[in-house]
Write the structure tokens for this entry.
Amino acid sequence: MNTYGVLGRFFPEWGKIVGQMQHDLFHIFTVDTHSLFVIRNLRRLMVDEYRHEFPILSDIISKLNQRERLFLAALCHDIGKGSGRDHSEVGEKIALSLCRRLGMNEYDAGFVSWLVRHHLLMSFTAQKDDTSDPRIIERFAEQVGDQEHLDNLYLLTVADIRGTSHTLWNEWKGRLLSNLYHATSRLFRTGLGSTEAIGQRVEQRKQAIRKLVDPEIDNYRLNKFWAQMDQEYFLRNAPITSAWQAEQICNASLSDLPLVAVRHRPEIDAEQILIVTPELEDQLVRATAALDSLRLGILDARMHHTNSGLSIMIFIATNNDPSPVTGQSIEQQCEKLRQFMLSSVNGYSPVALNLPRVKKQFKVPTRVVFEDNEDLGHTTMEITSQDRPSLLYNVSRALFEQKVRLLSAKVSTLGEKAEDTFFITDRDGLPMSDPRQRSSLESRVKSLLN
């Protein structure tokens, strides 16, 4: 229908996106071809031959009522591109008009147009917000409304990302989306309020961690470690991650500091790195310099502080070394990381790596945006910039120089563009609301990245 122009005659708005190029590196197809690939990806979930690729998503779509609404949303999700305005808002109106022309009732027409309007919501939330925080899940659940909308949005989001290019989808993105989907589904089932949800979730996580920790770690040592951690620690780390950290920390002594542990996570094809060190003002700079020197690409970073003056840093990073991961290679990584943590990095020069020629053709100006989250107790700093080596190291330098504390970071790369989110506070652990401090930090970030 698209090849012979029939689709454009039946659906005139479609004709405007036929052959329309998307001028970035992560969309490798024209708008119409991409939209048809999204539809293909949804259909693929319904074919038994491909069920093994995404079994949970195949289950969801098999139980879905009125699948035609989802497929119409997929057809229209980018229909507003090329208008010069927000394509989601434009697409919402076009989708609503199409559904009415097709004779759909107002509820179903509104359902399709809602999916078009919010088709980026789940992706943005999963990749930019701290979805381990129940308050973030509550906010997302309020925006979505119910399980039916969540199921359709999850399916559309995965199909959309996988239809963008052959390289954009990876297991890390899949894990982020899956965690958000299941956490929101759980909230819809239980209906717990924020305060109750936080307390209950902490206790549930502690119970789960106890079952996963090596039995040789007795309750006394485990409880002694936990007594030094606040609720945020349990909320922001999965039980399997907390159990691994507990084993490393409970089996270590003060003479082992700085403690460095690395393990390979084959399910996300990345390394998980734990660094425990006495609190130092430049600890994050040292850690990111160490990771940069090993050419590890940071996907996620989290920091916690104990009551006894220790800092716990957890990183998820991809390893660009094509060599197979072995016990020896992990030991060598640990030793290099430890040596960096023991010394000042004043003289460190980032690894000089040239950008690929194709990326140089797409200039992305650095943009820094701040948003206060008073109820969450921090400020969100979003940085959009040209993707380049040593980006997180340079941001860490700027935070250190401006006396800003990092709580966690989420890193997202889309072709030539890096869209990174940092959750930060001032030195006193409060949201960074001072306009002068924000302006100074923004200037320093831009100076280092440009």
Q: What stands out?
A: Residues 6-190 form a domain with the Hypothetical protein af1432 fold (CATH 1.10.3210).
